[in-house]
UniProtKB/TrEMBL annotation:
InterPro entries referenced in this protein's UniProt entry, alphabetically: Prepilin_pept_A24_N, Prepilin_peptidase/N-MTase
Organism placement in taxonomy: Bacteria, Bacillati, Bacillota, Bacilli, Lactobacillales
Protein's recorded name: Prepilin peptidase
GO BP annotation list: signal peptide processing
Keywords: Membrane, Transmembrane, Transmembrane helix
Length: 225
């Protein structure tokens, strides 16, 4: 029963993440304008905004103008819902809040970074409050050295300020070993992406998010999450 609720929560958070990043991109507030069809500009009704179900009920086409609706948001909603449900199934329930908040924060940043190769400062800072508040902070000499390396990379434009901040938050809240696993997976995935796309300027936060998710099963201590 609890896992079902977690999946539903994931659907809603996935929907909110796509809404948040879309409105941030076009400099809309969260309250205005009302959600609308991008083709006919007609305001959407409440049932059309239900995660996944709204898309299914409309059969993938706008209820008003009958133009095809992009399934992107539906993919994010369903994927994030299943992701939270499957991982929380194996995760001790007391660790759920931190995992859910961290995953939601990384999802928002990944969507924005992938679409615009840029991250809103307010999303970056406000979203980090949850992980930094709920997780036991772990600061070591290794992380102090890493901080210096990250600041140098940021100064020389090798990394963006968003990438640097995300790495620091993950390192402080997860510890050295988990962070090393995250960075290894993220870097490997990014190198593969560059090799096949020939695109050398790429958003790195989505790869950090991938590293975070894939590092969960191999972490030595679940409590680090």
């Amino acid at each position: 029963m609890l896992i079902t609720l977690i999946i539903i929560l994931g659907l809603c958070l996935g929907s909110f993440a796509t809404c948040l990043t879309y409105r941030s991109k076009y400099h809309y507030s969260l309250l205005y304008p009302h959600s609308f069809c991008e083709t006919c500009q007609h305001n959407l009704t409440w049932w059309q905004l239900i995660p996944v179900l709204g898309y299914v009920l409309q059969k993938g086409h706008c209820h008003f103008c009958h133009q095809k609706i992009s399934p992107f948001s539906t993919y994010i909603e369903s994927g994030f819902g299943l992701l939270l449900g499957s991982i929380c199934y194996f995760l001790p329930w007391e660790l759920w809040p931190n995992f859910i908040l961290t995953s939601f924060w990384l999802l928002c940043l990944s969507l924005e970074d992938w679409q615009d190769t840029a991250i809103s400062l307010y999303l970056l800072i406000l979203g980090a409050i949850g992980p930094l508040t709920l997780a036991p902070l772990q600061l070591s000499f290794t992380q102090v050295v890493l901080l210096g390396v990250l600041l140098w990379a940021n100064w020389t434009k090798k990394l963006g300020y968003g990438d640097t901040f995300v790495i620091l938050v993950l390192g402080i809240t997860l510890g050295d070993q988990t962070l090393a696993s995250i960075l290894f997976i993220a870097s490997l995935a990014a190198l593969i992406y560059v090799k096949y796309t020939k695109q050398h300027a790429l958003p790195f936060v989505p790869f950090l998010s991938l590293g975070y998710l894939l590092s969960l099963p191999v972490a030595l201590n679940w409590a680090k999450f």
